[in-house]
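Fold this complex.
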Amino acid sequence: MSEPQPLDDSTVRSRLVLPRNPALMLVSPLGWRAVLYCATSILVGLLAILSGVLGLFVLPLVTWATANAERYRLGILGLPRLTPLPRSGVRHPWDSRGFGEGNLAVWGITVLFGLVDLVPGVVLSVLVLGTGTSLFQVLRRWPPGIEVAYTAAALVAVLIVGLYVAWALAAAQAILVDLQLRPYSELSRRVDELTESRRELVDVFAGERRRIERDLHDGAQQHLVLLSLHLGEADYALGEGRTDDARKALDAAQSSVESAMTSLRETVRGIHPQVLADRGLAAAVRESAARQPLPVQVEVTGDRQPSDAVALAAYYLVSEAFTNATKHARCTSVSVRLSLGDPLEVEVYDDGVGGAHILPGHGLSGLRERTQALGGDCWLSSPPGGPTRLRAVLPNPPGRAGE
Amino acid sequence: MRILVADDAALIRAGIIGLLERAGHQVVAEAADAPELVAQCRRLAGAEGLPDVVITDVRMPPSMTDDGLRAAVLLRETYPGLPVVLLSQYVAPAYAATLFEGSSSSGLGYLLKERVGRVVDFLRSVELVAAGGLVVDPEVVGQLLNARRGDPVLGRLTPRELEVLSLMANGAANNQIAGQLVISTAAVAKHVANIFSKLDLGPNEDNRRVRAILAYLNR
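Structure:
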């Protein structure tokens, strides 16, 4: 959901500031938006009273609906709409919880402003219509006399006064509504964000387990099957008195065990590299770089050690980038730039063929989710023809190392 | 025997092929993934004739799930009675069920991959399947039995008869069962007869052994 984020108080106020020159008021979008806002205020206000009186017993439902209408109506003034709240607590239309979360106060504000706006609304409409009509009539007389100028000036004056009045009323109502509703909307938005990031983390977790399972299946398990096969063959050969064949099979068994050990070591390193825990991120990245079949340049600046989660995320990003570069990019060199500050920045660059994507459900996508869950973000730039650049930024506040 | 071997791990494929060839069998084709397995089988069917038995891994490319199993089911639909031995890295009774459901019931094997290490047993299983027999890994049998506790049909069997049946499922002949359970061959024959009658397999039913095992596994 790309709901715009609620703004802080000063930004809300600054969006409601008028142009200095009163003449500019006529062309200021804010003034005319305010007129529209006030007009709908009257309408919504009257509706709010009416439904409040008619539906006295379902007043919680009415106040809840009113508050939601007000959230959306802020958009008329060019303010971001506030995230509506789910009717989580409200079980039935007369459940008094419908009054909560600022709803009752907003209903009051809506009714009040509906009534207050009505008076200047009617007066100003009459004035504008009156001067407009007389201007129309003086224009029809030919040749135009000096009274055309008077009437036009009067119309402009009435319009400017009307726009100011509309602005004052609209801004007052919007600020009050915003003050009432924003805290709850903010909460609701945070809850949405947390739910989303928790779901993503679970996905990342599941993906990780799948990867480990695959590593074990393709690695250690295959070698162990082979070991069993060679041992069986040795036994079979011995039974038939072919000692040379048996010895050959035992040799093969030996190398299967060694391969299984190597493969297990690789898998374990993939789960949590020992050197990362012992020597920190920079050493782990250097070690990983040294294991690549290509020359890898590593450049480290700063010395603020990140927390375990951040270090692991950064390490995985680098490893995944190495894997992609060596497997798919057909590149001749790779370079890594790691900046251990706050935020921690890591960038992997290769001069390969490019064209890499972050596909949902694949390695990089999981790593991006992990990065975002930690409060950071990651970007991939890989135009066809290369080069490929993977960049990630992770928050790395002081004093959290080894957490 | 003429054998087709399919496994995506080149090392294991080579190992199995070496084993079979040293035991005097002929590996007529090999495949590294499920589509290749089907293609090789079609090619052989069109040229020198179907292999006597197909040995395939369950988990293979392209999707790295149960492609090998699905290829085997497909092959048995196209060539009914083609003997297939499935090798699996882990026990999944659901795989066995899929395999035994759709096809004519003979000439099938479902074994854990590491059983290839018991060379003599493995070769015997392959020969049994090629001859139209049914071989199911003891692990799978154990799990299936566990899942079917309280089954009315199996409930009629005594624990001893269940034991005999599970060994039958593993491809053992009467004298081998007698050896394993340390009882006489005559006693085994009596148990087997009891099993047949309790599972309503009359004396005129052909291939009663296979039917008993299937009844035991999933019917």
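Chain A touches chain B at residues 214, 217-218, 221-233, 235-236, 245 (CB under 8 Å).
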